[in-house]
């Protein structure tokens, strides 16, 4: 039974495969290619779109714009407070400032004369 079909198949698969000898040039080529790929991926992670440096610059720009928005909101609330104070205590000054800006009351018309 030692020569049965089963034993022949098992013997065939148990044979050790011959290992190929790898040349030094192939090893260096593989190492070089691997190093290049690692460097390329690193470059993309740092400098590429969505990389570390562009994101850092965008975050800085967002922070600057948020500070600018906060400054404008503070100035806007200050101006609103000034307008409400003028309406309450000094309507004539408020109207004079509105006229300087070219604002009119409802129902009024602006007449402009040509200068000669």
Please tell me about this protein's structure.
The protein is mainly α. It contains four helices and no strands. The model has no long low-confidence stretch (mean pLDDT 85). 71% of the residues lie in helices and 0% in strands.
**Distance between the terminal alpha carbons, to the nearest Å?**
127 Å
Radius of gyration: 41 Å
Number of strands: 0
Structural class: mainly alpha
Quote the beta fraction.
under 5%
Secondary-structure element string: HHHH
Biggest sheet character: none
Summed over residues and divided by their number, the pLDDT gives a mean of 85
Given as residue ranges, the uncertain stretches (5+ residues, pLDDT < 50) are none
Helix content: over 70%
Shape: rod-shaped
Summarize the structure.
Helix content is 71%, strand content 0%.
Task: Looking at this protein, list some descriptive labels.
116 residues, mainly alpha, 4 helices, rod-shaped
List the helices and strands and how they pair.
Layout: H1 5-14, H2 24-47, H3 52-89, H4 91-100
């Amino acid at each position: 039974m030692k020569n049965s079909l089963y034993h022949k198949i098992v013997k065939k698969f148990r044979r050790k495969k011959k290992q190929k000898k790898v040349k030094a040039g192939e090893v260096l080529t593989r190492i070089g290619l691997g190093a290049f790929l690692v460097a390329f991926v690193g470059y993309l992670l740092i400098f590429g779109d969505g990389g570390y440096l562009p994101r850092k610059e965008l975050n800085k720009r967002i922070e600057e714009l948020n500070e600018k928005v906060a400054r404008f909101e503070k100035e806007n609330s200050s101006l609103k407070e000034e307008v409400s104070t003028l309406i309450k205590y000094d309507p004539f000054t408020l109207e004079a400032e509105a006229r300087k800006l070219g604002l009119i009351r409802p129902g009024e018309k602006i007449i402009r004369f040509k200068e000669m």
